[in-house]
Amino acid sequence: MQERKFINYHPPGKFQDCSLMAYDDQNRLIAVIPAALKQEGESSIFCSYPGASHGGIIINHKFDTSKALALAPLLIEHCRRLDLKAIELKLVPRIYHLSPSDEIDFALRYHGFSPSISELATALPLKEIDTADRFMEKNAIRNRNKAINQGVIVKESDDYIQFWGILQKNLKERHHTFPTHTYSEILDLIQRYPNQLKLFSAFYQEKMIAGVLVFALNRRVINCFYICHHEKYQHLRPLNLIFSDLITWGLQEGFHFVDWGISTENKGQVVNAGLFKFKEGFGGRGILRETYRLTL
Asked: What's residue 49's pLDDT?
């Protein structure tokens, strides 16, 4: 999500890009900070790119603690020169890291940043299991089997327009809201990442009744981008079967985690206990998504 190819799917002018690149004393690129300016009242703040779930400071394995401690004050000084009100960085969850990199968190805290938003996602560690059933609770297995016995089947699909119709109806009826992305934006993303975005759909009597749009953000994690079902067919438990098949696919493809996304709302202030329970029924456990902030 930090690639320019991803960021550029947003319409021109939607965000005021102010992404940064950091170089060492030998003019070698050592860090990238995808960012934009965001209005807060009459002031502007420097924040992780608003159109991406994950932001943070992107580094390679050669980036060490001394560089982290040197970079943080440079970022602070840069934002002060721009007369910005605050810095807000949404870090990448640790399950996506190719190597440990808590020197970033430490450097931010050392220089006065503190967590301002804490959200909780649910993820399943695939390297700890050999079958989808390994950590699934009995109720989740029973509902998965119910879907199979009722004739529900799961397969990859490219019928995005039908999926989008179910998603829009589902969000409107259950949450009185709309998808974060427009349908045209999703199609644009699929064209940009044809091998990383996949739609797993459940069908009953040849009719799509549920779906999960997944985004393989890197070689470690399958991210569940959008999850929905047709309310009329909820009793058939199609999502149970999709989740189980998705775990099996992730195992076969060598991924490390399935990330089912956050089940908190309003920047972590509201907990959707039912949604947590559903995801945890497949063996998932909590992954923090933290945002650090410093008022200048």
From this structure: 86
Q: What are phi and psi of 241, to 5 degrees?
A: -70, -40
**Contact (CB, 8 A) for 282 and 244:** yes
- CA distances to 169, 173, 188 from 183, in Å: 13, 18, 9
Domain shared by 50 and 68, yes or no: yes
Structure tokens at 167: 């998603």
In sequence order, the 6+-apart residues with CB closer than 8 A to the CB of 27 are none
Q: How many CB atoms neighbour CB 42 within 10 A?
A: 6
Tell me if 38 is assigned to some domain.
yes
Range of the domain at 47: 4-112
Q: Nearest Cα to 190, choosing from 202, 178, 179, 181?
A: 181
Domains in the chain, number: 2
H or E element, residue 229 = strand 221-229
Q: Is 173 helix (H, G, I), strand (E, B) or coil?
A: helix
- Let me know how many helices (H) and strands (E) the chain has, helices first: 8, 16
Using CA atoms, how far residue 181 sits from 30, 139, 164, 178, 229, in Å, is 32, 33, 10, 8, 18
Name the residue with higher pLDDT: 72 or 2.
Answer: 72
Domain harbouring 220, CATH code: 3.40.630.30
pLDDT at residue 5 tops 70: no
Rounded-to-integer distance, Cα 114 and Cα 117, Å: 9
The answer to whether residues 16 and 46 touch, using CB atoms and an 8 Å cutoff, is no
